[in-house]
Amino acid sequence: MANVDNDYAIKIEGVKKQYRLGQIGGGTLTADLQSWWARVRGKEDPNMRIDQDQRLIGQTFMALNGIDLTIKQGEAIGIIGHNGAGKSTLLKLLSRVTAPTAGTIDINGRIASMLEVGTGFHGEMTGRENVYLNGAILGMTRAEIDAKMDEIIEFSEIGDFIDTPVKRYSSGMYVKLAFSVAAHLDSEIMIMDEVLAVGDMAFQKKCLTKMREAAKQDGRTVLYVSHNMNTIRQLCDRCVVLDQGKLIFDGNVEDAISLYIGTNNNGFNTFYDFRDVKRNFGFGKDVFINELAILDKKEPVFANNETIKFRVILSSKIDLNSANVVIQVKTRYYEKIGMALSKPFKIKKDENKTIDFEMRTDSLSSDVYCLGVEIVSIDKYNNFVSYDNPAAKIPIDINNDLTSKIVWHKEFWGNIMFDEIDILG
C-alpha cells in the first residue's frame, strides 16, 4: 500500500502480463513434431501462421508489455483501445484478480470494481446479502453498510427484488445493483469496464452522473473503459489509449479519441478502390462502383462549414436511362441520420462514368461518420432499385463552437443541427 501522503491513487511502473497459451495441434504428427523441435531449440515455429499476433512469444502471449501510468486522486480517467488491446487485463491487475508478470502496481486506497456483469456476486445469495458481502470485502463494518443500504436499494431501482437470490436477476438487474454497490460503498477508487452498456439508457445516464459526482465532488478516482466515445467525453477529463498491450497515448480526451479512431480502423483514406471488394445479394452485378475519392484533401478531416468534394467512378453492363447516386450518412455505429440524392444521369452499357458531387458539413457535429454510396434507379412503380452500395468510413472533424453563445453538446442534442427557426405571427 502506498504512503497516504502521496497525491496519487495508482502508480503503475513497467507492468507486464504474460499468459501461457494452450497447446494446439498442427493437424498432423509431422507438424506437431516440427513445432515441438522448434520450441526445444528456441526457434520460430515453422507452422505458425504468417498473420500470427506479434505479441505471441513461443507458447505465451504478452497481454501487457511495459505499462507506465500514474493516476492522481480524484481524476476521472478513460481507458480506450480496440478489442485485445489490454484494457480488461489492466483493470484485472488493478483489481487484484490476477498478478502482473513483471513491474509494480502501487495503489493508494480501496477499490470497488465492476469488471463484468455479476462480478463479486454469489448467485445463491440475495441482493441484500451480496451488498453485505461486497462491503465486507472492502473492509466495512455491518453498521457502516446498514447506513448505506437504503441509498443503495433506491439507486438500484430493484427494491422489490432485493431479497431475491441474484441468480434469478436479469443482466440489467445485475448491473443496476452492482453499480449501486460500487458507487455507494466506501472506496476511494472506482473501476468500471464497459458494463453499463447492459443497462437501459435512463440508468446509464444516472450512472454517468453519479460517477461525475464521485470524481468532482467526492474526490474519488474513476477508471472507465468503454467503446462509447460519447460517455468517455461526458465523464473523463483525461484519457489513455492502449494498443497491442502498450500505452501509446496519455492526455487530452479528444486527442485520445482521434488517435483511437485511427488505430481502431487501420487509418482512414481519401481513396477507396471497390473493384476487388466482394458484394452480397447480387449487388455490383449490373452496375458497379469502382472508386470513391475525396478530392483536394490529403487527410479526410474537415472543419466546420468546409465542403467535402467526392468523385465516384462507376461502370455498367446495362443501359440505364435514369440513375442516381445516393449518399447516406450514418453514425460511427451505423445508425442512419441523413440521405442526399443526386440529379439523375444516364449511363450506357460498357461505359465508365465519372460523377463529382459535394456535401456540406455545417449541420453535423464533430464525430466520425460512415458514408454509404449507392447507385439506384427508379422503376415504373416509383421504387428504388439498388445496383451497388459499398461504404467507406470518413472522419469529419468539426469545430463545436457553432456560435458565440452556444456550444453544441452532441450527447444531449444529437448529430444534426437544423436551420434557425423562423418566428411566425
Protein architecture, described:
The chain is an alpha+beta fold and 425 residues long. 23% of the residues lie in helices and 32% in strands. The protein contains 9 helices and 20 strands. It has a 6-stranded mixed beta sheet, sandwiched between helices. A hairpin with a 2-residue loop joins strand 9 and strand 10. Helix 3 packs across helix 4, helix 4 crosses helix 5 and helix 5 runs parallel beside helix 6. The protein is globular, with a radius of gyration of 27 Å. About 1% of the residues have low confidence.
How are helices and strands ordered from N to C?
Answer: EHEEEHEEHHHEHEHEEHEEEEEEEEEEH
End-to-end gap: 69 Å
Structural class: alpha+beta
Mean pLDDT equals 79
| Quaternary class | single chain
List unreliable stretches of 5+ residues.
49-53
Shape: globular
Number of strands: 20
Number of helices: 9
Strand order within the widest sheet? 6-7-8-4-9-10
Work out the strand percent. 25-35%
Radius of gyration: 27 Å
Any key phrases for this structure?
9 helices; 32% strand; 6-stranded mixed beta sheet; alpha+beta; 6-stranded antiparallel beta sheet; globular; 425 residues
